[in-house]
Amino acid sequence: MKVLVLGAGQLARMMSLAGAPLNISISAYDVNTDAIVHPLTQHKLGTGLANAIADADVITAEFEHIPVAILEQCQQSGKFLPGSDAIQAGGDRRLEKALLARCSVASAGYKVINNEADFKQAITSLGLPLIFKSALEGYDGKGQWRLKDPAQADMLWQQMADFLATDAKQAIVAEQFIGFNRELSLVAARASNGEVKAYPLTENHHVNGVLSVSLARPVSSTLQAQAEQMFSAIAEELNYVGVLAIEFFDVDGTLMVNEIAPRVHNSGHWTQQGADVCQFEQHLRAVTGLPLGNTALLRPTLMINILGEDTTPAAILGLAGLHLHWYGKTKRPGRKMGHINLSADSLAELKAHFAKLIDLLPATAFPELEQMLNQIAD
Ligand code: ATP
Ligand code: MG
For the chain, N or C: smaller number of CB within 10 Å? Predict the structure, then answer.
């Protein structure tokens, strides 16, 4: 079976690694260069979307910021899962917020802003504080502005007006600021027969808007049920096939959806060591029509992103339950270069091993891990 992935980054790479034992071979289409590449070696296999489509049994995507013309060409082939509508809903916050409203899932109140009148009306109707997000191209907290103090409104509007002037297709979505207790995400798969299998909710810690640590541990069945109900509502509305991730705010035990990602997700990387079938294999199973695998948590596992570094102390590999995953990328400040998965038989043991790992890692490259360890409730 041949699967074409739109995007040639680490998610395509990890799908390739997970697909090999099932005889699923992955090629990746780089939407920026028009090259078809091998996702592990980046070796060029060919050029042109039409060739890539012709050679594939199934087409999927590893990211959502893909030109609509490319999505439509893939859709017309009849091979594309989860399909153009789902990818667009993940890549345009206007479509995403409208989708969430249609599915009646709780989410921060919002208003789409195209001009100064919209901006003023958002402040009046939604109140402050507000968070403003670019409709297109936002990721890792980029393209966001916050407004707490009404005295700053004019200055902020100037910045946003300059931003809007750069691209006629852009807009800004204003959202009510949610005072949450913590951030959680659900990674789950829906098969073409409608079957859904969800991994346990994962607790996510961000540093400067970028995911730093995800923790998978036994989770409250009430919260898990809330999350799965929202997942089903969204996945059914999109007639979704594949892995879909949903980011939530936990507000005193009630979940609100922050955003969706129509693909495998950084907060699901722990499944490589903490579950029977990882999210990458699960996605491939779903889009190729194979039965979905077991999603139960086998052992508490946490994932730490490696940002902007291409080495870690060799000694960390001596820790029990530690797995290192590099993405083979060239080093750039802040770039997602790899991740560490750490598993243990119990949460107490995981915390003890996390403490040892923190001692071995350079604090400058891995900030705030100590605080995150202290925040893990027993
Ligand atoms: P990524 O793609 O890395 O998940 P992103 O750029 O798509 O990030 P969001 O997830 O929407 O952006 O926002 C980044 C972070 O900003 C969130 O993880 C959360 O901490 C905070 N945030 C976003 N929206 C709100 C909100 N309405 N209220 C409070 N905090 C928010
Ligand atoms: Mg996010």
Answer: C
Any idea of the CA torsion for 136, 125, 247, 245, to the nearest 10 degrees? -50
Considering the domain architecture, whether residues 61 and 159 belong to the same structural domain is answered as no
Write down the pTM of the prediction. 0.97
Counting atoms of ligand 1 from 1, which one is nearest the CA of 139?
A: 6
Spell out which residues have Cβ within 5 A of ligand 2, the ion: 247
141 ligand 1 Cβ < 6 A: yes
Same domain, 308 and 187: yes
Residue 38 domain boundaries = 2-80
**Statement to judge: residues 294 and 210 lie in one domain:** yes
Give me the long-range contacts of 223-227 (CB less than 8 A, separation at least 24).
223/184, 223/250, 223/253, 223/255, 224/198, 224/200, 226/254, 226/255, 227/184, 227/186, 227/198, 227/201, 227/255
Number of domains in the chain: 3
Site to substitute for ligand 1 among 128, 176, 258, most atoms within 8 A of C-beta: 258
Query: Using a 6 Å cutoff on CB, does residue 206 contact ligand 1?
Result: yes
Query: Contact, 319 vs 353, CB < 8 A?
Result: yes
97 within some domain: no
Number of H helices, E strands in the chain: 12, 18
C-beta of 247 in contact with ligand 1 (< 6 A): yes
For residues 212 and 238, state if they share a domain: yes
Over residues 298-336, the pLDDT tens digits come to: 999 999 999 999 999 999 999 999 999 999 999 999 999
Instruction: With respect to residue 157, please indicate whether it lies within any of the assigned structural domains.
Output: yes
Q: In this predicted model, what pLDDT tens digit does every residue of 111-167 receive, in sequence order?
A: 999 999 999 999 999 999 999 999 999 887 789 999 999 999 999 999 999 999 999
Do 151 and 269 reside in the same domain of the chain? no
Structural domain contains residue 372: yes
